[in-house]
Design goal:
With about 190 residues, this protein is mostly helical. The protein has helices at about 1-5, 15-30, 30-50, 60-80, 80-85, 100-105, 115-130, 135-145, 150-160, 165-185. It folds into two domains: about 1-90, Rna Polymerase Sigma Factor, Chain: A (Orthogonal Bundle); about 100-188, Arc Repressor Mutant, subunit A (Orthogonal Bundle). The chain is built from ten helices and no strands. α2 crosses α3, α2 runs parallel beside α4 and α8 packs across α10.
């Protein structure tokens, strides 16, 4: 037990890990207020379960594993019938973070940078509109798998679906996204 106290230093968690945990959370929930709440819950859960820390990983890795569970619990709550009544998904309405997930995947321009940036912004906006027009479950699974890069097994477990069902949902979501983009972007 005394060994655990030397391995964990909760007094320095905020200074040492808050920014990293926040960036991790906001990349997965795309809502800064929710990300802040999840980080706060992570620190609280870490304090409550400090006696269970075995020192087999770093503090940061241990806190990330707690935060990961908090993110999964958030999506589980949204997916449940009770959670759907209590929580509405609120993606892409977070001011400066709006759509950052896509910017990370846009190739860097070597010439005509301002024209490319405008085009990329318009493309990103259209993709977001198309994702928002998907059925709620399709959009949720698509975001979790494609944008937030959750593992297949993790999504299936948390949403209580089979891997076959997941891939059917992904295929249907991609088909609907392709049609939406063809109708609203490529054919304009």
């Amino acid at each position: 037990m005394t060994q655990n106290k030397t391995l964990l230093n909760p007094d320095k968690w905020i200074d040492s890990y808050a920014d990293y945990l926040f960036n991790y959370a906001v990349a997965r929930v795309n809502n800064s207020d929710l990300a802040k709440d999840l980080v706060q819950e992570t620190f609280f859960a870490g304090l409550k379960s400090a006696k269970n820390f075995q020192g087999k990983s770093t503090e940061r890795t241990w806190l990330i594993s707690i935060l990961k569970r908090k993110v999964i619990d958030h999506y589980r709550k949204i997916n449940s019938k009770k959670g759907q009544a209590e929580v509405r998904m609120n993606f892409y309405t977070d001011g400066e973070n709006e759509g950052n997930w896509l910017e990370e995947r846009v190739p860097q321009s070597w010439d005509n940078a301002s024209e490319k940036n405008i085009e990329n912004e318009e493309l990103r906006s259209q993709i977001e509109i198309c994702i928002d027009n998907l059925p709620e479950k399709y959009a949720m699974v698509f975001r979790m798998k494609t944008i937030q890069e959750f593992e297949t097994e993790e999504i299936c477990k948390e949403l209580d679906i089979t891997s076959s069902n997941l891939w059917v949902i992904i295929h249907r979501a991609r088909t609907q996204l392709r049609k939406c983009m063809e109708d609203n972007w490529f054919n304009n």
